[in-house]
Amino acid sequence: MQDVGFWSLVPPLVAIVLAVLTKEVIFSLLCGILSGTAIYAVANHLGTMGCFSTTVELMTTKLGGNAAMILFLAMLGALVAVITEAGGSRAYADWAAGRFKNRRTATVATALFSVFLFIDDYFNCITSGTVMRPVTDRFGVSREKLSYIVDMMAASAAILAPISSWAASVMSYIPVRDGMTGMQAFLQAAPMNLYAVGTLFMVFWICIRKKGDYGPMAAAEARAQRFGPAQENADELEKLEVGQEGKVIDLVLPIGALIVFSILAMLYVGGYWSGEGLSLVEAFGATDAPTALALAGFGSLLVAFFLFTLRKKMTFGGFFLAVGNGVKSMVAPCIILTLAWSISGVCRELLGTGSYVARLVAGSGMPVQILPAIVMIVAGLLAFATGTSWGTFGILIPIVVTICEQVAPELTITALSAVLAGSVFGDQVSPISDVVILSSASAGCEMMRHVVTQLPYALTVALCAAVGYLMAGFTVGLGYGVSLILTLAVFFTLLVACLLILPRALPGVQKEPAAEILEGEEAVAE
Questions:
Q1: How far is it, in rounded angstroms, from Cα 220 to Cα 202?
Q2: Whose CA is closest to 419, among 354, 352, 372?
Q3: Closest Cα partner for 148 from 395, 498, 458?
Q4: pTM of the predicted model, to two decimals?
């Protein structure tokens, strides 16, 4: 590692600034990597070719070291594609449509269905919106409310579950030190991920309470109950159309197999059946999550293959055509991950960015207690600007972990959870986020209307979480367990107070319906 001082800040700054200006994450991360390897080559007198050879060697090393993660993402994309092609999603929608009695049960069922699909946010938002749209339409639930539930639950559930694509991504960024694996760090950070935990709570609160909406969402709900859900984004909905002749088992069995296989594979890889007498917790802590998920992905694809081909739901060739299309859908996430791993390696292994920033923080006199709250804000802004959580993870996690280890080791887990919380928040409110776009399209809601209606809800949880991280920073000296209890108590007290007050303070102003709607009503009256 070369100590280059201030120059070690250039790669992440280049990536962040270009992401804000161009909105192109891949281009921005690549420029950040090249700027870092150029600085490293100059400092070590490697010449021009040294810059490019260092870049290629670093990417090759990172890609090879994380091949299991890439393999899991590819098989996950394939599984999503074959389930969609077989018609499992549509079958569930037909089954569910006649089993709910009112708006409350329909929205709660949508939230529960999204929780069940915690394995991947892309799969979650596409499937949940498409499957539950006919159900929520029947009870006059606005498309804005549906897209809010789908969007909020997708990433929030994925970032808390240890057997999701998000969890595997986060674990790959966490440096293994002091005997703590990425899985152990993730499991400790999950309960302190205030934004994700609070979002799950708020979604169910909004679904259950009769008059819990406020702001633009309240106006959208009132309009939907009066005139029915506005059906928009027809072109996008056509792209998301799924198979028509499947059965509920075509969705439930492959996804259930993936979940069960993931748990069993994690225990197997962690040594639970090795004869060493490890407990369940110890085996989960010692597992290699990407490897286990890759094994589970392969097993669930086998289940799907026999389920669909033996029943002639899909031909042999059709199954593997869908597999190929599913793998293609994961190319962009795999590229972002590889570049994020690479810029992380530039900052941590080549230039020592984290160590330099840690020295600045230590000499600044800034109270370390406010570090988690600041980290959450920075992560939120970066994810909002780039439209991606995964790129934010790759840039910030290694830097934040290094800073905490050198300045305040007791804050490492808390600051890590703040990075995750801020990244998810920024991603969920960014109009250039893939999940935002997919959620609005699958729900049939105009994208900017989706962003505007859910922004006050996301901000409510984020502001309460920021206060919670201040509490966490000042109570960490009492021990992580005590700090967690006090932080959660303050956070949920504040959040519940906001959810009780805001519907009265911001009831929402229902705009007059569009002229064409009024004209249609007049024509019917005549």
A1: 18
A2: 372
A3: 458
A4: 0.70
- Residue 180, phi then psi, degrees to nearest 5: -95, 120
276 residue type, one letter: E
Are 304 and 284 within 8 A, CB to CB? no
Give the tokens for residue 15.
């990536």
Closest residue by Cα to residue 283 from 264, 256, 260: 264
- The answer to whether 243 touches 86, Cβ cutoff 8 Å, is yes
Give dist(CA 375, CA 405) in Å, integer.
15
CA distance 57 to 116: 40
Closest CA to 268 of 160, 276, 161: 276
Per-residue pLDDT of the chain (526 residues; tens, 9 = 90+): 667 788 888 887 888 788 767 767 788 888 989 998 999 898 888 888 888 998 899 889 888 888 887 888 788 788 878 887 888 766 766 676 667 778 888 899 889 888 887 766 766 776 677 677 777 887 888 889 999 999 999 888 888 887 776 777 677 677 655 556 677 778 888 899 999 999 999 999 999 988 888 989 988 888 888 776 665 443 333 443 444 567 878 888 887 888 788 888 878 888 888 888 777 767 766 777 778 878 888 999 999 999 999 988 888 998 999 999 888 877 877 887 788 778 878 877 788 776 676 667 666 667 888 889 988 988 888 777 666 787 778 778 877 887 887 778 888 889 989 999 998 998 888 776 767 777 887 787 877 788 889 999 999 999 999 999 999 999 988 888 899 999 999 999 999 999 999 998 887 654 444 433 334 344 333 3
Say which residues have a Cβ less than 8 Å from residue 311's Cβ, sequence separation at least 6.
none
Sign of CA dihedral 149, 110, 108, 418: negative
Provide the residue count of the chain: 526
Reference 65, options 440, 309, 391, 341; nearest CA is 341
- DSSP-derived secondary structure letter, 162: T
> Which residues, in sequence order, are CB contacts of 280 under 8 Å at separation 6+?
267, 272
Token pair of 200 as six digits:
């799950």
Q: Is the CA virtual torsion 402, 406, 407, 408 positive or negative?
A: positive
Query: Residue type for 170, please?
Result: V
Cβ contact 382:426 at 8 Å: yes
How many other CB atoms are found less than 10 A from the CB of residue 376? 28
Half-sphere exposure of 514 (CA within 13 A, CB side): 7
For residues 305 and 46, what is the distance between their CA atoms, to the nearest angstrom? 51
Is residue 177 classed as helix, strand or coil in its secondary structure? strand
- Cα distances from 9 to residues 33, 44, 62, 389, 469, in angstroms, run 12, 17, 21, 20, 26
